[in-house]
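Q: Could you write out the predicted structure for this multi-component system? I'm mainly interested in how the pieces pack against one another.
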Amino acid sequence: MLELRLVQGSLLKKVMEAIKDLVTDANFDCSATGFSLQAMDSSHVALVSLLLRSEGFEHYRCDRNLSMGMNLNNISKMLKCAGNDDIITLKADDGSDTVTFMFESPTQDKIADFEMKLMDIESEHLGIPEAEYHAIVRMPSSEFARICKDLSSIGDTVVISVTKEGVKFSTRGDIGTANVVCRQNTTVDKPEEATIIEMNEPVSLTFALRYMNSFTKASPLSSTVTISLSSELPVVVEYKIAEMGYIRFYLAPKIEEDEEDNNS
Amino acid sequence: MLELRLVQGSLLKKVMEAIKDLVTDANFDCSATGFSLQAMDSSHVALVSLLLRSEGFEHYRCDRNLSMGMNLNNISKMLKCAGNDDIITLKADDGSDTVTFMFESPTQDKIADFEMKLMDIESEHLGIPEAEYHAIVRMPSSEFARICKDLSSIGDTVVISVTKEGVKFSTRGDIGTANVVCRQNTTVDKPEEATIIEMNEPVSLTFALRYMNSFTKASPLSSTVTISLSSELPVVVEYKIAEMGYIRFYLAPKIEEDEEDNNS
Amino acid sequence: MLELRLVQGSLLKKVMEAIKDLVTDANFDCSATGFSLQAMDSSHVALVSLLLRSEGFEHYRCDRNLSMGMNLNNISKMLKCAGNDDIITLKADDGSDTVTFMFESPTQDKIADFEMKLMDIESEHLGIPEAEYHAIVRMPSSEFARICKDLSSIGDTVVISVTKEGVKFSTRGDIGTANVVCRQNTTVDKPEEATIIEMNEPVSLTFALRYMNSFTKASPLSSTVTISLSSELPVVVEYKIAEMGYIRFYLAPKIEEDEEDNNS
């Protein structure tokens, strides 16, 4: 039997909003250690990895490992029915082909439950090896989201270049070229407003802006984002989920910087 | 001659927003006692009944009974031109085929008038008999609106079931089933947040969510809504208009609970 | 060499938003006295004239007169990437066919630059003679914008009539007629809320509402608007730009008041 009770139910809403544009159907894996998901986007270019550790739940019971296939749009529809202050409980009986979401209002005067059929989804779990990164940038998630959005009005790809002084985001399009430089800046009033560069060697990589913009849908989950870069490794864009886990997005760099993105 | 002066002009804007999706053209009836409307929706399934008593107007003059046919979208367009604090006056001369809406800003510095042609609309006034209801639910109008909206993302019809403990709203659709229970709750800080059940016998009735959602457009008029239910009588969804009257919506229950709604 | 530094960068954003619906491509003229633009709208009915005097810039260097052809939608796209508190600098080298916009965040932690190709645009500079106007109306810009928007839901043209008592805006459409009267009103708490009429003789002129609505896009630039009217002269709708200059829109009156506007 599975029963997961999350007091801060709005967190689950934000998690689904963060990944539903990228992933249509996915298996959610429950084990004694936590609730997780790993999925490729529909064009098999980007990878999402989610972890919510069991300690983060008010109540966490998972008698045996369970993989529950669900359509993310349907989950999102159901979660839209939850109030922002609602407590959310996920329940599944052993061997059942359904899962139940229960929403309790803080005063307990309103209780909603939604039963959803589970799906069979084929998927293989990829091992993601630990890697050394040439450069790790930590910056405000809202700033990163703003830059990706701004640059997409000019071009289709972004070149991310890291030096000791800062990180540069560049693009090029029909109407001209654009560069945005964020300087390393650790002496801010609020730690979450800092831009911090950890660098072993300079790096400059090109990515499709379309995916970067999808990743920034996770911004409501965390005030900071960490971008880990290495030549010829996928970039990791990570949003920490307070005291519970993370969402990580992986995206391979474009090999030829000048290549046109015809998918946009 | 007709001259109705309403200090709280925004009320008239809210009334039109509440009914214009349901009713296209309708006769507004003026008599010494008040300003009223009774109309079926275009598919002749739901009935709207509006009453604004003469006492609620700052000035109310209606020399003889008058039935004025108007297009509600046109009235709504005109009322959009009124500021929220404007005083609205409705004027019609005896025998005239036009009606004039006048809007005065609170400082009297801006005065607008709109003259609109009246229409000939055939309609018959239905007598609505007083009825005994098995159950009457009073609840916050915003809560009711939220539930109807939430359930429509899952299914097309709602089953409303009342017991002494509370009222349950249920639906079923392709992606699963949903139940929302609001418990009777009279010990709240603000009386308008209470959920109060008056029940003679349990009742469970099925309605098209599309209509329920239309009715909830009246929510800005009142912080509470009253839902009166009886087997095989139309449900009455009533929004009181402070010190002036009400909007009541009538909708027949669906006979077969499992019937699919193909109109959505 | 050209280098213009504007501390209040949001002003440039507002200027572009004010004219980009009316004008697609235009030459921006830089001289020692200031930064200016004069352009007809694409249907050659309305004229825009912009002036930002050199004194209003924190730094203003213009070695020789320069006319820079740009697409306003492209400028607008670039300016959307500037934060509202950013300092904006415009740079062009002598003989270069590009212009650079630079945005600095107030803390200097984020610096963006956008390079854009200049275009060759044919245009002739019209001399606009000083004229005597029969009536000049100064009123809150938000009020004027609201009236133009409201009347366009009823009709296509507006008759502006000025008397000593006030200014009347009238329209007529399929659903009826509308008149909005703003009374002269100089005894308000805030001077920008006044409606002030300077009148030599009464005047009544008809204009296409479509253009008036375009002009009101400049409302964020100034809390007041000045409307100067004379029979058989184009109306001037002027928004002052604090301590820097103005945007002026010119529009010829419609000769026959009853003429239908088929362009809407």
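A: Regarding packing and overall arrangement: The CA atoms of residues 134 and 201 of chain A lie 5 Å apart.
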